[in-house]
Automatic annotation (TrEMBL):
Organism: Faecalibacter macacae
Pfam families in the record: Sigma70_r2 (PF04542), Sigma70_r4_2 (PF08281)
CDD domains: Sigma70_r4
Name this polypeptide is given: Sigma-70 family RNA polymerase sigma factor
PANTHER family: RNA POLYMERASE ECF-TYPE SIGMA FACTO, RNA POLYMERASE SIGMA FACTOR HI_1459-RELATED
Amino acid sequence: MNYEDDSLLISSYQDGNEDALQTLIEKYKGRIYSFIYSKVLDRDVTEDIFQDTFVKVILTLKGGKYNDEGKFLPWVMRIAHNLTIDYFRLNKRFNVIHESSNYSEDYNIFDYIGVMDECSETKIIKDQIDCDLKKLVKQLPDDQREVLELRIFKDLSFKEIAEETDVSINTALGRMRYALINLRKVIENNNIILTVD
């Protein structure tokens, strides 16, 4: 894999070429998707975490917060890893490793120890970010705002969002994509600086 190509695609995307991100997604989708699935063992959950991973990627790239060191894939994998841990924390359940199952060297019990701990300072910061984000989201068109709120604030899967809003999954995903593009414009117009881990 050519990491120099990744840098060119990232620059192109940051310059407004939306197709460049699609090329990056297609290039690494298999590896990222397989990694997430190996942890959660559920295709719907894997799809949701995969989509959320690229939501973070988009916000970071468009916010100019990405430092390109030729390590795009490891960076995206770390985001996917952190979102997978968040999934287990929110659902208060963990992978069970049976003797008969295939043991993955990627699995590390220490990744999961302590994920239930969340200091009060972190909670306060997250609550403030949620509050600020809700104000920004209100500036979006109704159909885009609805999808974004259902995904971020109600934690529905895209399948559930499609059923709730009576549209196809592709339409729900499309609305989410446009919601993020428009949200970026709102953020830029208000000179808001976002820091995404």
